[in-house]
Design brief:
Elements (H helix, E strand, L loop, with lengths): L1 H14 L2 H4 L6 E7 L11 E10 L2 E11 L7 H7 L3 E8 H11 L3 E5 L4 H14 L6 E3 L7 H12 L15 H7 L2 E2 L10 H9 L3 H10 L17 H10 L1 E2 L2 E2 L5 E4 L13 H18 L5 H26 L18 H7 L6 H16 L12 H23 L1
Antiparallel strand pairs: 1-2, 1-5, 2-3, 3-4, 4-6, 5-10, 7-8, 8-9
Length: 404
């Protein structure tokens, strides 16, 4: 019902002319920045616009939220995996928006935009058009087009020298926005930082999510972030806004704490992928040197390894070639996660000997080139690559014994 009331207010403002669509003299626009949450989709925080004003004689305190998606969609996970997940802009009451963050103990900060009445009106007109059903849906891209980057884009458009309605509400290339930008972003960024490095601090608290994301994301994520690119992260957007200037004046007022952050995340090193795979490596090495090549325990260990890494390779290939994701392409994890591992589990053939040496070479490359490869691999790939080398050697040794 709350969402319906907001929609009707905005609809009336559109239908009944400028006398209602004009913001009042005390209207305030601000940017809300929400701290990271425990779930993977909230791990990097969130950003949204807040509008406080009086529309149609009624006080309005609403949030324009670019982070809405339908988690109950029957094809949600399929769309997410294939890179076809659509997000939407939705207007909702501020109290309704903030309630969820209060329940989770997540912090919220507010930065009021120091806009002129004309700039506030422009931003409202853009958001009012964007929230309409024909314009509200956009194809989510984590690095280039998300809830945080959309805030940046709308601010740039609202203060541009000329109206930007012609740009529409689908994805607008960052270069086109930079060309019309009047805002001076002064926050010093770490030059040479890649997209993968920028998200790492958020993933340190979820080591298995970190491992999965490093497997899924390919070489494009190791590109260096360019101008304005850091603002795909809500925290980075907030820092940029703190020092941003418009016509020599601060773009926004100092940040105010709306909700205190009560979350406290810790890192579980003992159950991290690197720790567990290193322990597995120790057991694997012991079985290799202390047991016979045909030992049942060694076979179980190496078959588990081959099946696991083989299935990972199928996931990598799926994300690379069968989805719309651009950041999962050119994935160097295939050096250790090879689909041929599934073949080695089924049965060894003589013609596979050369293939085994290719796989050994690939895993050696992972270990020796870990620090200088074009793609940054997860540290857990090192014990996995070492175990695979031992497994390949044992398979080759067994084949020689059979021949003899």
């Amino acid at each position: 019902m709350k969402k319906l009331i907001i929609f009707l207010v905005l609809l009336l403002a559109t239908v009944h002319g400028r006398s209602i669509t004009m913001l009042g003299p005390n209207a305030k626009f601000s940017v809300l920045t929400c701290s990271p949450g425990p779930d993977l989709y909230s791990l990097f925080g969130h950003s949204a616009f807040r509008l406080q004003d009086t529309l149609g004689g009624k006080p309005v305190d609403i949030v324009f939220n670019y982070g809405v998606f339908d988690a109950f969609d029957d094809g949600f996970y399929v769309k997410f995996a294939r890179g076809k997940l659509d997000y939407r802009l939705q207007a909702e009451y501020f109290d309704y928006f903030i309630e969820g963050y209060a329940q989770e103990g997540r912090g919220v900060w507010e930065q009021e935009l120091d806009f002129t009445p004309l700039q506030k009106q422009r931003l409202f007109d853009l958001l009012q058009a964007n929230v309409q059903e024909a314009n509200c849906v956009y194809r989510y891209d984590f690095f280039m087009d998300n809830c945080s980057s959309r805030i940046r884009d709308m601010i740039i458009r609202a203060v541009a020298a000329e109206p930007t309605n012609s740009l529409g509400f689908r994805y607008v290339a960052l270069d086109n926005l930079i060309a019309i930008n009047e805002v001076r972003f002064n926050h010093p960024c770490n030059q040479g930082t890649t997209y993968r490095q920028a998200i790492q601090k958020y993933l340190d608290y979820q080591p298995w999510s970190d491992f999965g994301i490093d497997i899924a994301l390919g070489q494009p994520c190791d590109r260096v972030i360019g101008d304005y690119g850091f603002m795909f992260l809500p925290d980075s957007l907030m820092r940029e806004l703190e020092s941003a200037e418009l016509n020599g004046q601060p773009l926004c007022k100092p940040a105010k704490e709306v909700l205190t952050n009560k979350t406290n995340y810790t890192v579980e090193h003992l159950t991290s992928p690197f720790t567990l795979f290193t322990l597995w490596l120790v057991v694997h090495v012991w079985l290799f040197f202390r047991k016979k090549p045909s030992s049942v325990f060694l076979k179980v260990s190496q078959n588990m390894l081959l099946v696991t890494t083989g299935m990972v390779s199928l996931l990598v290939l799926f994300l690379w070639f069968l989805t719309d994701h651009t950041t999962t392409q050119q994935n160097w994890n295939l050096l250790w996660a090879s689909p041929f591992n599934l073949i080695f589990v089924l049965r060894y053939k003589d013609w596979m000997r050369s293939l085994i040496w290719i796989q050994i070479t690939s895993c050696v490359l992972v270990i020796t080139g870990f620090l200088w490869m074009p793609q940054s691999l997860h540290p857990a790939a090192l014990p996995l690559a070492a175990m695979l080398i031992i497994t390949y050697v044992n398979i080759f040794r067994n084949s020689r014994n059979i021949d003899n």
